[in-house]
Design brief:
The protein is an alpha+beta fold and about 270 residues long. The chain has a domain of about 60 residues. Helices cover about 30% and strands about 20% of the residues. It contains 8 helices and 11 strands. Strands 8-9-10-11 form a 4-stranded antiparallel β-sheet. A hairpin with a 2-residue loop joins strand 1 and strand 2. The structure holds zinc ion (ZN). The site of zinc ion has 8 residues, from loops.
């Protein structure tokens, strides 16, 4: 084979004169458009923007039900196509504010049953154990310190902060394409939680994405997406909800929440 010489770090090294063939990605990341063609009760013939990353999408030739991102950057970052199992997370960047944080957290604890019921309405399999875990995480992140924090958004925020949720083994068994994991995401207009409570022209989308069991990564990637849906936010206005009686909950859940509060006050 013909070789040429070049200098690398002051040393002469040899390399083949023929450049290696460009390695193409396995396949172009495609998005099944069908679940996304009905949004807000309106049926659309095609998609022009990705519902998750809001990037422009184009039809895939020959496969009318699929679209692809126009930009490779969106391919890399979008929940529906990313090859990383640690995509951009929702961030909480508010510095701790003693007065605001204390008041918001107290109000949450006072109405925790309503919040737990709201989370379960959006995700019926959400357990008290998960609830306590994500609340401890929210405490560390200073979620409560946003001055404009709206109580009615907390169920969505807690679901998104929870991250990947593995379903019980019983749900995984069966067909190879069965759903192994779920995760809730806001669309890309919400990067920082505070984006929910700033000036907005439209409400952000909240999505439930379902994944198959990943083959080679600890958590699923865009390649494992089985489907998804836009989750309707809670139908009943929050003020109306909290004006009613507290939701009925199991005694075990009440006891578990009491233990969480006692533990967090000790820390
Ligand atoms: Zn996208």
């Amino acid at each position: 084979m013909e070789h040429t010489a070049r200098a690398v770090n002051g040393r002469q090294v040899e390399r083949p004169a023929v450049e290696p063939a460009v390695v193409k990605p396995e396949r172009e990341p495609m998005i099944d458009a069908r679940p996304w063609l009905v949004a807000d009760g309106v049926a659309r013939p095609s998609l022009s923007r990705c519902p998750l990353c809001l990037g422009e999408v184009l039809p895939v030739l020959g496969i009318p039900e699929f679209v692809r991102h126009r930009s490779a950057l969106h391919d890399a970052r979008c929940v529906l196509t990313t090859r990383t199992y640690q995509p951009d997370e929702l961030v909480v960047r508010k510095a701790y504010d003693v007065a605001v944080g204390f008041a918001h957290r107290m109000r949450f604890v006072r109405r925790w049953e309503f919040h737990y019921a709201a989370v379960q309405q959006l995700c019926p399999s959400f357990t008290m154990k998960r609830f306590a875990t994500v609340l401890a995480y929210a405490d560390v992140l200073n979620l409560w310190s946003y001055p404009n924090l709206r109580e009615e958004d907390l169920a969505s925020v807690l679901l998104v902060l929870t991250g990947f949720m593995r379903l019980a083994d019983s749900a995984v068994k069966g067909a190879p394409e069965s759903v192994g994991w779920v995760r809730f995401w806001f669309d890309a207009s919400v990067r920082d939680v505070g984006d929910l409570w700033g000036a907005r022209t439209s409400a952000p989308g909240l999505f439930r994405i379902e994944y198959r069991e990943p083959g080679s990564t600890p958590f699923p990637t865009g390649a494992d997406v089985l489907g998804g849906m836009r989750v309707d936010t809670l139908q009943m206005p929050w003020t109306e909800r909290v004006a009613g009686p507290a939701p009925e909950l199991h005694a075990a859940d009440r006891a578990a929440f009491g233990r969480f509060v006692a533990r967090s006050h000790r820390n």
